[in-house]
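Final report, section 2: Outcomes. Of the targets proposed, Germination protease is the one most frequently requested by collaborating groups, and we therefore present its record in full.
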Amino acid sequence: MNLDLRDYAVRTDLAVESKEMAETVHGGPLPGVQEQVDEHDGIKITRLDVTDENASQQLGRMMGHYITLEVPGLRSQDTDLQEKVSAAFAQEFSAFLNKIGINNGAKVLIVGLGNWNVTPDALGPLVVENVLVTRHFFELARDQVAPGYREVSAIAPGVLGITGIESSEVVQGIVERTKPDLIIAIDALASRSLERVNTTIQIADIGIHPGSGIGNKRRGLTKEILGIPCIAIGVPTVCYASTIVNNVLDLMKTHFNDESSDGQGAETKQIMGLLHDLSEGERLGLVKEVLEPLGHDLIVTPKEIDEFIEDIANVIASGLNLSLHEAVTPDNVASYTH
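The predicted structure is given below as tokens.
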């Protein structure tokens, strides 16, 4: 069986997943990718620095800094854990700002990308609803603003199908008039792993392309286009059906191997036939070859998305409030979040 795999790739917006796939192909760690991993209180934090062009091409990711917080326990809707994640996010984000040279006085524009009418895509607008905005106070009564706050504005520009205007064009107009020093863009992403959907937050300094989570890239929000640094914050809320089928086949293979009486997986090969010897890329190519002509390579989101999207939006908003305003503390942050 010969498959043309050039048009097939595992769909993911997460740098950690791109690294995992690239290392599988490469057979080990990639030169030009620096990784640091910490894990505590059920929160796994992975910091990746992609430092050269060759590594960038192998990963399919731009050179830059990436931080990923993975918290499987978020599915349990544990409020104590959510508070810990907000605090960890705030600590990482503050360090991230320092790393890329953003000072405490920098003016910030927060952009909530996505369609507020579509639950898995409503992350950005929901974060905007819950962040502390202060620019109007600085404009109208600067001398009355208490110490410990910075100038923050926020916008949810909608999507092209609703407004008829590219999000990037809306943001570019706002940047020209209000002149922020930094953009923070929040958007929903896609993952290759079911375990990471609804449980992972990614921070990156490379900007963002609205619609990337559903493979519908638009004109980006990047430093090259907007003239100021643009930090992207994303959460995977969807998976492609082909990715899910591929994952299930992999899980079946592992399960049959574990249950095999000889411990060598001979029975697994009998059960799975040709699928047993296909690589992940070949298997995914086969799944897509079957699904796409039928129009069944759907974009799938978990049934709990309604509850989750509110929770994760509050986690990110609380983390942003803590990291952007010194006057906001873990003790009073709840009063700033709706």
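The chain has twelve helices and nine strands.
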